[in-house]
Amino acid sequence: MRLLTTAAKALAISAAAVLGCASLASASPAGWRVIGKTSVANSISGEGITTLRLPGRAPQTVYRNGTTIPQALKDEGWGHVGDPDSLRGYTFDVYQDTVTNPPTSKMYLVTAPSGETTEFVHPLRADEPAANANAQVAVTPDGQWLVSGALGDATELYVSPTPFLNRRAPRVAGDLPLAARIHLDHPVRSAQGCDFVSPARLLCATSDSANDLYPTSYQLLQVDLPHAVTGHDVTAHVTELGQLPLSSTCTGAFTPEGVDYDAPTGTLRVEVVPPAPCNTVTDVYSLRRR
User: Fold this and answer.
1) How far is residue 50's CA from residue 47's CA, in Å, rounded to a whole number?
2) CA–CA separation, 38 vs 32, rounded Å?
3) Is the pLDDT assigned to residue 10 strictly greater than 50?
4) Residue 65 to residues 50, 93, 139, 201, Cα–Cα distance (Å)
5) What is the pLDDT of residue 7?
6) Average pLDDT, stretch 221-243?
7) Where are any strands of DSSP class E within the chain?
8) In what order do the strands lie in the sheet with 201-206?
9) What is the pTM (predicted TM-score) of this model?
10) Is the pLDDT of residue 265 over 60?
11) What is the dihedral of CA 176, 182, 188, 190, to 10 degrees?
């Protein structure tokens, strides 16, 4: 085999890097471009992601995984944590009951900037889904409302007042009431993570491996509301922006998970767990608007 010169090797490496960037760019959903990818050990990641900004401190990336659930919460039956969100130093986590069958409640855990936590347990109404009832939560940019959703086939999202930030919300442990619903004009399946990118727009990542609802699988969905959330029922328009970035040396099923939009930097991040045996890490893709 003919040896490459140093210059030729450099050119080959450069070309490979360009091809790699082109591959990521071609996989970018409409209106967004992939600007980076990192891998995080699944011992701490794989269920959710959010950016926590505490006063006087550098921004912190918070990951969620089953191993991050405090033992005290597991003892209460909260065995699954979903995709969290954060605003003004508060972190909002969503938990599912994995002991009661069928589940009769879901739980929102609020961590204050001081580190103090408060549990808000919501008894499920008859028309609220029980299985996988708390897959993700997103706080509105004004901090007034939490928007959460179930994991299976869904036609609506659920709105509750944000504890400690909305005067209509309880400030002590108890029930976090349902204030309104966002009715979706197109069903979604397996929305693992959502976040607001503007007062009236959500982006959601799904682990839907089929293409019967949308032209592609593993969709990034845009949910447009008629106006900012006000605590009243509305109907939102759902648009598929395309397939999420999927890149791995392993073949098989991917599992998109958490979504985080950091407004100060304009960075959207999406967690994707690659197929086995590469699923010892979670790939985190960073995107910016085109």
Assistant:
1) 11
2) 17
3) no
4) 12, 11, 20, 26
5) 38
6) 98
7) 32-41, 48-52, 60-64, 78-81, 85-87, 90-97, 105-111, 117-123, 136-139, 145-149, 153-161, 180-189, 191-198, 201-206, 219-224, 234-243, 255-262, 267-273, 281-289
8) 136-139, 145-149, 153-161, 180-189, 234-243, 219-224, 201-206, 191-198
9) 0.90
10) yes
11) -10
Least-confidence region, from 13-17, 45-49, 90-94: 13-17
Identify the band that residue 4 occupies on the pLDDT scale cut at 50, 70 and 90. Answer: very low
Instruction: Give the three-state DSSP class for 279.
Output: coil
Would you place residue 24 in the very low, low, confident or very high pLDDT band (cuts 50, 70, 90)?
Answer: very low
Q: Which amino acid, one-letter code, is at 151? A: L
- In three-state secondary structure terms, 17 is helix
What number of other Cβ atoms are within 10 A of residue 172's Cβ?
Answer: 7
Q: Residues 6 or more apart from 52 whose CB is under 8 A from it?
A: 59, 60, 61, 62, 86, 89, 91
Name the phi and psi angles at 53, rounded to 5.
-115, 110
CA separation for the pair 5, 179 (Å, rounded) = 68
| DSSP letters spanning 154-213 | EEEEEEEEPTTTSTTS-SSSB-----EEEEEEEEEE-EEEEEEEETTEEEEEE-----SS
